Amino acid sequence: MPTRRPNALRPTTIEPYPTNAAGSVLITQGGTRVLCTASIAEESPRWMIDKKTGVATRGWVTAEYSMLPGSTNSRKRRGTDSRATEIQRLIGRVLRAGVDLGQMPGLTITCDCDVLSADGGTRTASITGAFVALSQALAKAQLRGLVDGSPLLGNVAAVSVGIVDGSPRLDLDYKLDVAADVDMNVAMNHRGDFIEVQGTGEQGTFSRDQLDSLLDLAATGIRELITIQQDAESTLKQP
Amino acid sequence: MPTRRPNALRPTTIEPYPTNAAGSVLITQGGTRVLCTASIAEESPRWMIDKKTGVATRGWVTAEYSMLPGSTNSRKRRGTDSRATEIQRLIGRVLRAGVDLGQMPGLTITCDCDVLSADGGTRTASITGAFVALSQALAKAQLRGLVDGSPLLGNVAAVSVGIVDGSPRLDLDYKLDVAADVDMNVAMNHRGDFIEVQGTGEQGTFSRDQLDSLLDLAATGIRELITIQQDAESTLKQP
Amino acid sequence: MPTRRPNALRPTTIEPYPTNAAGSVLITQGGTRVLCTASIAEESPRWMIDKKTGVATRGWVTAEYSMLPGSTNSRKRRGTDSRATEIQRLIGRVLRAGVDLGQMPGLTITCDCDVLSADGGTRTASITGAFVALSQALAKAQLRGLVDGSPLLGNVAAVSVGIVDGSPRLDLDYKLDVAADVDMNVAMNHRGDFIEVQGTGEQGTFSRDQLDSLLDLAATGIRELITIQQDAESTLKQP
Amino acid sequence: MPTRRPNALRPTTIEPYPTNAAGSVLITQGGTRVLCTASIAEESPRWMIDKKTGVATRGWVTAEYSMLPGSTNSRKRRGTDSRATEIQRLIGRVLRAGVDLGQMPGLTITCDCDVLSADGGTRTASITGAFVALSQALAKAQLRGLVDGSPLLGNVAAVSVGIVDGSPRLDLDYKLDVAADVDMNVAMNHRGDFIEVQGTGEQGTFSRDQLDSLLDLAATGIRELITIQQDAESTLKQP
Amino acid sequence: MPTRRPNALRPTTIEPYPTNAAGSVLITQGGTRVLCTASIAEESPRWMIDKKTGVATRGWVTAEYSMLPGSTNSRKRRGTDSRATEIQRLIGRVLRAGVDLGQMPGLTITCDCDVLSADGGTRTASITGAFVALSQALAKAQLRGLVDGSPLLGNVAAVSVGIVDGSPRLDLDYKLDVAADVDMNVAMNHRGDFIEVQGTGEQGTFSRDQLDSLLDLAATGIRELITIQQDAESTLKQP
Amino acid sequence: MPTRRPNALRPTTIEPYPTNAAGSVLITQGGTRVLCTASIAEESPRWMIDKKTGVATRGWVTAEYSMLPGSTNSRKRRGTDSRATEIQRLIGRVLRAGVDLGQMPGLTITCDCDVLSADGGTRTASITGAFVALSQALAKAQLRGLVDGSPLLGNVAAVSVGIVDGSPRLDLDYKLDVAADVDMNVAMNHRGDFIEVQGTGEQGTFSRDQLDSLLDLAATGIRELITIQQDAESTLKQP
Question: What is the ipTM score, two decimals?
């Protein structure tokens, strides 16, 4: 296999996957495979409901993230650990940045990201894939008359970047991730604005210059991922 | 779609699926899809270890069963409920009937059955698929020198049967299952002996004659499923 | 003690036991003793309530099963493990087959089976005893005007059978259970129809002929147990 | 039924009860019935084991308390709530005051108190009954050579007292307990020394004089209970 | 440091502490420091609400107790263990004895006692401090018009006493507590009546005479603590 | 009160606080007060111990974060929720960036951050305060001979920044935090390198220019906080 360039994504596809959820896609990014489903519930989280009126004026989008036991080299035990908790909060925040919640009152959409096979970048692949499942579910909600017009504000996607052997790299697989001194996850929208930036230097620290080069790299990757999302969305819309 | 005959299985395939587990297949039986992985651990459950010698003279095979949130029409909440507990105990018991545990001392193989899409018969499809994943994992264990010779005793597979509108039916999908007065899950081995028979008449009771006709039907279906397993096993063995 | 014949039940009694529950009996079957109580609540499980009308058109019967710490040779830890979960689901299913739930709208009866002393067959003794407690509770519900007429459809009882040293045996005690190659629990009603058949061959498999002889043996035992139930019910009705 | 005198115990019996535990008695005190079992384990709690030597120089006695679902008028849900936690800590402390733990190194005895029927005073009846089960278990431990000589220091028993309608009362049943302004549980040994005094005035407060009269009453009751214990112990010792 | 007399309290202060709760004080008693806050909620516990009227005719006061991880010599793990459960039930009972719950319908006040530093007597210091926080919260409730007039019935406070080396001691610090044969916690009101007496002799038993001398000592200490409470309350009322 | 400039920290102090932990300080940053303690344990987390040698070649630093119930305007329920989980993982990661774990084999230091009063920026104040407690604990570890030389690599501190009404602001209090469109937490070391950057735009997105101005502001604030830390460390070292 030819070596991947430092600024190249791994081969990435987003395909429809047959489940019983309103939105359902499988994202494959190199050896990472995540099944992303989006389920619609005609209800609102408790804290969102106005105690006086009994009604919620906005909708909600939330996410859950889990790794299947066979997704990792040594079997992953089931259950939500602290890492998964942190990741699913991130996924939810980023997806909500792509939606006008005021346009979907009374609805809750839960995006489930289940990692079938893990080879690095599972949280960012989850975001990128879940956005398409969410978009698919919102299209169904429109058809069923649950929302007027699309609540979508535009695409959101995410990618990981990092500093490996002193150089910036795009889209870390597991081996690169382990070798990285600095690890950063970046989520952006279709206009190139940031939604979330999370950079961590547990094995080291990073300078302002390094930060800048990582953000540049992430922007490139995310533009490409949004194109892949848009292709998948077109396909899904076809009869 | 032509109506399925009462004694016909739904279209069924068992294919290899790329995860990081030692054994990994996707079984598709009509609209039911279950990802079955088998992971090897070089350890023994506590209760199996002799307190004096500190060693277990036999190995262990166990199973976990879970439905992904998007697998059902209304989103399934995560977590092991009492139904899943009962099902995974059944899967484990049946798989162990296909293995000589004395031939795999010091090893534990966990078979994870994650339902990606549910349309009836998920527990029996889990058994049928997990056996192939288990067989694949045991082949790897042999290659790695963890076992001498194969601990497999022969194939095991399972199918559901039931009485719908007064007539016996093979391989119930969700609609048939809901309509059934009697629901029975049967597991057998390649010699046609029973491993497990679980018949329940919550919506009604059943006579000895009805029981007999259900068992006949199950035997037919299981013979066919074992052929499908054997084909999948041949494919997996090819380079 | 003279050897028990292979087709004989252990000495079995069902007696009223003074607790504060609406129905309350102690069943003794050889060395197995289970306190079975039935408590009436004027409420319905959530999932049964129609969201629009706020009312449940049927009642519910459920069961809980637990072994007291001193019931086993080495102290049993408290708490519901997976075995208990599976057993209490079985007990509930079988009891419901003896009741017309449509005749008891708005009521939930919980049958608690607490094993005081365990010597094999605790799940089947629980069913046989709990039915009498349930019957007693339903009689009280009638007296209090909570139901019109009795919702009972007839008696249900259960027994274990197994293959020990190659021969079929009725009503296995702990020693026989450990020695058995095949273990089967059978529940039937007063008309001799099956409600539940659960046969397991973890230590071996079983042929159709063996299955047939086990079912014959179970039918004999259950007929006898239903007579014991009916005697206990007559006693309980007396002033 | 003739009115019980304010300084009289309810009819109280302590009988052997057939379970699989080393010690096993049923105490009946009026309408309160508690099954008390004592189980021997040849192990020590972790915190008791000296990290250097790996050995515990003393033994341990602990207790668990639970009410069966049918023991109360409205069904009691299973599981250890905060009241049960508090009670089982009390039972354990009092029982340990009757034992020289230094005489039973390497042993842990767990006394399980399961309330079959509750009519007030369940925690004190648990103490009084569990002591006899403990004594029975320690006798077996001696026979098995697990201890040299008896670790028992003498009998311990407990009773409830309270102020009802302004007057002190011994051994409150449920109705009296509800009506009481002050509720006190007292545990003493055979020499008439206090082990535990717990007086609570949630519905009111109490003066020093009232406290004195309650303690006098408790002493009377406990003397009588210790006689009942001793009679039971003699019976249990007979072949 | 001069030796403390057996009947002397440790140096004790109760000061306002800036948090966001309605009542908030820090009690320091020797090396023991407890942050006591009281939070007002305009709601009632479920069990207190009349099912017919949907209203609670009385209010509720409850307490939670916790030790911060750094409060003890070896780090205390977080979470409510059985000791904390027992203690917070005690604190709640005693505080309620100082309040006319009928005067505060529809309100629940939760008193949180968080031990910042532990040197014995944390449960009694919690009671003494929490009463002042509760009093402060009730004053605010009056200002906000949530209650008419003060629901307080008078001060309540608590202290520990014990028998160390055969002699009675007031206000045990950690070293004395470990050395004590008998340990007693006493809560009284401003009139000198008992609210709660809890005496335990796990390391030994105690005679009636010893009990009497402990109660005398406790009464002295509590009188002094109530003076300290009243001084703190005056300070808190000043503008 | 004069308005705070957009690039000014709130008044901040770090003081020693008397608990029983090895390191213990109270950090006050405006209305936010966090008690930070550091406890030393001579043990290693399981996953760090080499299975063959039974020894860990490095030490570990971890953190726990909790808000006391009275710290917030409406009472905070106890227990670790998903937000706390995410925060304590962040605190731990950042603190570890200030320590050479290879210099402290066999030791685990747990930094507990308990928020006594919350007015925004509790997670960053926790980091800044916990570093001083950690430094104090490591000094004690040196005195006790548990480590050779100081494992500290230099100071680490953190601050929040955000975009409020379109302008960048340093050190957000609760009101500013609620009003902010973008919220960013930044941790740096004494050399001005980044350890962690977490920027979130749930209420909006942010451009590269805005990101740059936030990072500049954070750098200013952190330099000032490190000076405050160093002053506190000097004070703590004095006899």
Answer: 0.94
